[in-house]
Amino acid sequence: MSCCYNDNGQGRRQEQTVSNTLVFLREELLFDIENYTFVTGDLMSAEDEHMKHQVFDVAQDGNEDLATRVLNLAHAECVESLYPYTKTPCIQDERFDDKLVAPERYEVELALPKQFSRTTVLLLRELIHDYFVCRVLVEWLGTTCPPAQPFWKERLDILMAKMKRALLGRRKPLRRGQSMF
User: Fold this and answer.
1) pLDDT(119) > 60
2) Which of 132, 150, 156, 137 is nearest to 56 (CA)?
């Protein structure tokens, strides 16, 4: 095993890592988003059919572009929030544009310490999926049904806090000292 030195010149072993990739299928995300918007629209009063129609149409032609941009943003937010486990080096002279890209799948590549808990990775998978869905709902319902937006915004904030808390949790087996009690 290799050894590195910190600024004080004290040796420290580098931790071995394992790679995991979380994959989120666009089709599955849109399906869940449509289910939530259907329920939200169905609960609206019957007098405003046009408003209900707008809430339902989140993933229809034309509106799907907005959902795609928000999914792309949610992906970038999740990758950034999982730093340093998602750290990737910059590439010299790489160019980025704002052309709409609609990937069939969103991937989050993780470089985790070898002792990282698999159950934590499974929890992150579920939290990130819900984060993607909530992120789109916050944007969509903010436009089509503003009274429903605060619920989803609060849920979005809770999901991000849970993701960060899962990363900060214990990574190695807990060793308890001996006690007379």
Assistant:
1) yes
2) 137
